[in-house]
Amino acid sequence: MGQNISFIQTKQKLEIPKNIIHFKKTSFIIIPMDLDGSTIGEFIEIAKKFSSINKIITHIETELENNYSLCKIVKLITDLELTDFTIEHYSEWAEIPIDYYHAYFENSILVKKSIDDFQNDYLKLSLSDQMEYDSIDLHNYDICKTEYKKLDIF
Fold it and tell me: Residue 95: how many CA atoms within 13 Å on its side-chain side?
């Protein structure tokens, strides 16, 4: 089965509302998003220009307020007060990678090297390096949604 998943991952200690799909695994919180790779890519391109989360948010809210998908990312970041996180999109078909977008933010500042070199020391949050896939199926948002509903948290 191919994968097509966008998500935010963090080690921050957060209280996430139950209505937001999320999984806690080891010391990570994974928040799948119902967004495509081009949206994550666009967010990262904006991040390259502005670097700090506050400037990115201001730009999106003032210049791109009609872009529902980007505003959805901004809302998640602001509502959860995220400062240290990765934002990623990964897709593949028949184990052949199609798209991979990745950026790491530390203290609300983009670590620019994380965009070009996602296997470096900055990315101790990387899902591909740290996650165990055995108990959470992260193939796509709909599967995440189904798996989340199975959890006894409501």
Answer: 0
Per-residue pLDDT reduced to its tens digit, 36-54: 889 999 999 999 999 899 9
> From the CB of residue 94, how many other CB atoms can be counted at a distance below 10 Å?
6
Strand pairing class (28-33; 23-25): antiparallel
- The structure's pTM equals 0.82
Say how far apart CA 103 and CA 48 lie, in whole Å: 10
User: Which long-range contacts link 19-26 to residues 24+ away (Cβ below 8 Å)?
Assistant: 20/76, 20/80, 21/141, 21/144, 21/145, 21/148, 22/148, 23/136, 23/144, 23/147, 23/148, 25/131, 25/132, 25/135, 25/136, 26/130, 26/132
pLDDT one-digit tens code per residue, 86-136:
998 888 777 777 778 889 999 999 988 888 655 444 444 444 444 443 345
Burial of residue 34, with CB atoms counted within 10 A of its CB: 0-12 exposed, 13-18 middle, 19 or more buried: middle
DSSP 124: T
Residues constituting the chain: 154
- The arrangement of strands across the sheet holding 96-106 comes to 23-25, 28-33, 3-10, 85-93, 96-106, 109-111
